[in-house]
Amino acid sequence: MKTILNFLPIILLGGVSALSVGCAAKVGMVSDSQTPGMTKMFYEVEVNAPKAEVWKLLADFDNLSWTRSVTSARYLNEKREGIGMARHCDLESGGHIVERITRWREGNGFTYVVDDASDPISTESYATWNISGDERQSKVSFEVNYKLKYGIIGNAMNVVMVKRKFSNQIVKFMEEIKTHLENKV
Q: Which helix (H) or strand (E) holds 142?
């Protein structure tokens, strides 16, 4: 509830509703999700790194050292690959998120659900990573389908400011993965 109170003045004053997408994300799109009541964000980058290297980085589920937006991550169970693997991430913002793999496509991507999160993310939210490419270059895509808590207030927060904030964070996130992989190779 404290988070709602922090956003309430911005909601009441009209806030900012523009959406910006950075240049590193080759495709950046925000739209209605196929899941009713959710917002979908899709971003894709081309990376000058082999597909196998991209997979190795993403499949190491508790290693998010390549991004500044996550200060620490740890496994929550004994699984180290596949469906059911779960992690807890402490975020740069001071919040946290708990994610669990629900779909695993070895070498090609995975989907995870949000089991718990700091306000205002709903546990109905989920994300999918996809990787395509060859020994020289890869295409990495990240699709997030999210919903905010708090009903109509959450919907207003999304329209007024959260879409923009999440969009900017994901663009930064995708720039970080691209930079990390290209500097590693």
A: strand 138-146
